[in-house]
Amino acid sequence: MSSYGATITGVGFCAPPGILTNEDLEKLVDTSDEWITQRTGMKRRHIIGPDGVTSDLAVPAAQAALEAAGKTPHDIDCIICATATPDYPFPALACIVGARLGVQGKPAFDIAIACSGFVYSLTMAASLIRSGVYRSILIIGAETLSKITDYTDRTTCVLFGDGAGAALVERSDEDCFLGSDLGSDGSDPTVLYMPGGGSKFPYNRNGELTDQRLGYIKMQGQSVFKFAVNQMAASTRNALAQAGLTTSDIDFVVPHQANLRIVDATVKMLGVPPEKCIVNIAEYGNTSAASIPIALAEAVENGLIKNDNVIVLVAFGGGLSWGSVVWRWKGAPVIHGQALAPGALVGLTAN
């Protein structure tokens, strides 16, 4: 039994105006619009400008969520950011966001679990609120994956885009948090990882990072596909069981937008009708920790998700990691954030 309830009172999202289409990628690597569309479901990705940083997207998404909830930054007790591409290795992106929002001194920290980050953040925020530690927590999923995408690698460069989504989670009389399931397996990080920048291949060994292209995302596609489908389906069932529900109780699934084939295979394994699955991958591509909050916000904005709907947010990511949350939606409004960073595709080349 929880002492308090938790609910989402506002959501917001932000995507930079720069666009990278499948036709643009045809000019960089040996690929085609048909090949990309058939294998990923992607058509476009939003890309930040060369001087932009992740906080440039996180801040307007956060401001939009706060405005939608009718709150100011001074109303929040804590900031949690989910990201694999912070402005710096440290300090945490959340610290920078807090300062840019004008609320230095608030507790702030990052969750670095890649694409599963928003699900982890929502579970953490709900737990802190339900236990009485905080009343109001701002959670943000934000990424500039274009900064670590290898535009000479045709297998990965077609996948990733930039963006941010945010939600304000607050104490409430009715508890909207129904269940959660989180997990990880770090036995083989090379399945999906970025080798450079940590203690194994530190930045000060710059020649090695550059020569071996270690500062970019590396992925074993087939292994990721099999892992993703099985774990997202299993995690969803586990979270539903914790909530005392079954797949027939789901109104909508909001999955991590990694690849349309992964999404389709997951909902098929769960026996959930396709019309109950929220997909916006054609517009944004894979935005890692930002993908679920962007998809959630768009679905609410478009009138798909309605009051009292039971929704499942489910993801997999680097770690390898996975997670799901079952949530009862209570009609939180949506506002679009305006990107603060340059959006033009200046300097995006395969080098």
Explained architecture:
- This protein is an alpha/beta fold and 351 residues long.
- It has 2 domains: 5-177, Peroxisomal Thiolase, Chain A, domain 1; 179-330, Thiolase/Chalcone synthase (Peroxisomal Thiolase, Chain A, domain 1), CATH 3.40.47.10.
- The protein contains 10 helices and 14 strands.
- The protein has a 6-stranded mixed sheet with strand order 5-4-6-7-1-14, with helices on both faces.
- α4 (93-100) links the parallel β4 and β5 (108-111).
Number of strands: 14
Helix and strand run: EEHHEHEHEHEEEEHEHEHHHEEE
The CATH superfamily of the largest domain is known as Thiolase/Chalcone synthase
What portion of residues is helical?
Answer: 25-40%
Average pLDDT score: 93
Indicate how many domains the architecture comprises: 2
CA-atom Rg in angstroms: 19 Å
Shape: globular
**What is the number of helices?**
10
State the end-to-end distance. Answer: 55 Å
Overview in brief:
With 351 residues, the protein is an alpha/beta fold.
Strand and helix layout:
Layout: E1 5-14, E2 19-21, H1 22-26, H2 33-40, E3 44-46, H3 55-69, E4 78-82, H4 93-100, E5 108-111, H5 117-130, E6 136-144, E7 162-172, E8 177-184, E9 192-193, H6 206-211, E10 218-219, H7 221-243, E11 252-255, H8 260-270, H9 281-284, H10 291-301, E12 310-317, E13 321-328, E14 334-336
Parallel strand pairs: 1-14, 4-5, 4-6, 11-12
Antiparallel strand pairs: 1-7, 2-3, 6-7, 8-13, 9-10, 12-13
Helix pairs in contact: 7-8
Which key terms come to mind for this protein?
single chain, alpha/beta, Peroxisomal Thiolase, Chain A, domain 1, 4-stranded mixed β-sheet
